[in-house]
């Protein structure tokens, strides 16, 4: 019998531990198990929230659960407790009731960020009506379209927007009554308020709230009832109205489990938002997360890159919300002494690009990025609450265990020829995307009672749903987003399914090209899209770029090296953009999403250029100025594209 020495036992144990540690790291076992248990605790907390709401699952029901003595709202130095918010809300609800508001109707909310907007949303909810949150950037026919979708007979607005509603008087889709609210937030507009407004325009001020008697009980609402209409951005057509159910408000009012597990670090929560309150990120992660934790919602009137860090310091926010390109705009602003003179350490939102992620953290002293993959109407979801550079630009993480057990959000193989999930020709079912393979994210539909459908738009609803995915009768919701689960387990965004264009017989991912151009030195912002040219098959790749230094000298240096640098990133020749436009600014919507449709309508004809844009074309392996002669060659299909 061989004797085993203590040294041998120690060595064997060390080897065993090292092996187990290596396997755990490779398979992310501990990480997946921890997340599974976090999800269970979070699910239990959501269940407790529903029980507490009882027969009032509306937005107003959450207000009743908030601590009345806790600070609720901060706006330009003014503050309200949750008790004071309730008092204002109750009084406003009485006034709206007197003017014809009632349960089971839609009331358009066309308001800029303000306490008045918060009170309006909650007051409408108390009456059992539904706020239709209209984008304040909309005008004329598009504005009427949104009110018409809701069949809104009343619109609530603020003094700064009233002038855009007056010209719509008499239009078939225009509301019968316009209520303008000003409880002290719009002093600069009072002097200019028209005394000749149409008869169906009324104004409600602070004095009106003080004089009303409150005696109307809150309407009973269930989790299945519609809580709000939130409109899509309309970047691919006219806005659609998403029917958000009360269950969604209950879910987003529950803090992330990471917060609940460490209350001393994260509570009391003070959330700062300069995003528009008609947008889901500000509404969900701002107002309702603050209300659900009896925290403070710090609201800015509008986005200001130059005043951002000062606002953080003034309101003493502990977390800030972002969306889309907001962080990129903030990095453009000159440095401020307030950039790190604030207690904010957490930034939460979606759409933060890899090339600005770490720069944003460093400049503003942010220690945690909470990137979440969500959409207003979407069921598919991922969260990236990880720390460190490796997490930058990622949507979430799934090890083998989590990937196997997850059924609510799945990446399925995608067929680029049909622009739909691939189906096995033998079984007719879809298949999960392999590691490293772009797959469309789909979300499980467990029932239609809580489904966030497009209001009065069955065609759009049908396009979002896919059936018989893995078995007969199952239903999933499509996102149109192509994501990749890397071999490491990290999930990253790849492209929008509609953002893939075909050139030289090859499919080109606009998102991939954009990401690589963004990584080049000197690039401030970029968007990539396909352009149809006569005489060429498919669509030529086009890039609109803004440079950090837009001087002619910097532009020339960038253009001279652009092709070589793009090839060095790994782009193939067919992926390199054939047309390049340098602009002072790339247009974005109110929610900071690139308005590609606006860029696509700009002509490439050098004779039709407006503003200060400069345009180039790829001649072989170098970019040249696009002049009339070269444009004529392109138009006749004779250029070497």
UniProtKB/TrEMBL annotation:
Q: Which Gene Ontology biological process is one annotated for this entry?
A: long-chain fatty acid import into cell
Task: Give the UniProt entry's GO cellular component terms.
Answer: cytoplasmic side of plasma membrane; lipid droplet; peroxisome
Give residue ranges for domain AMP-dependent synthetase/ligase: 68-380
**One Pfam family cited in the UniProt record for this chain:** AMP-binding
GO molecular function annotations of the record: long-chain fatty acid transmembrane transporter activity; long-chain fatty acid-CoA ligase activity
**PROSITE patterns from the UniProt entry:** AMP_BINDING
Query: Which keywords label this protein?
Result: Ligase
Q: Which Gene3D superfamilies match?
A: 3.30.300.30, N-terminal domain of ligase-like (3.40.50.12780)
The cross-references to InterPro entries, in alphabetical order and at most eight, read: AMP-bd_C_sf, AMP-binding_CS, AMP-dep_synth/lig_dom, ANL_N_sf
Cited PANTHER family: FATTY ACID TRANSPORTER_ACYL-COA SYNTHETASE (FAT1), PUTATIVE (AFU_ORTHOLOGUE AFUA_2G11360)-RELATED, LONG-CHAIN FATTY ACID TRANSPORT PROTEIN
- What's this protein's family per the entry? Belongs to the ATP-dependent AMP-binding enzyme family.
Q: Know the name of this protein?
A: AMP-dependent synthetase/ligase domain-containing protein
Organism this protein belongs to: Venturia inaequalis (Apple scab fungus)
Organism lineage: Eukaryota, Fungi, Dikarya, Ascomycota, Pezizomycotina
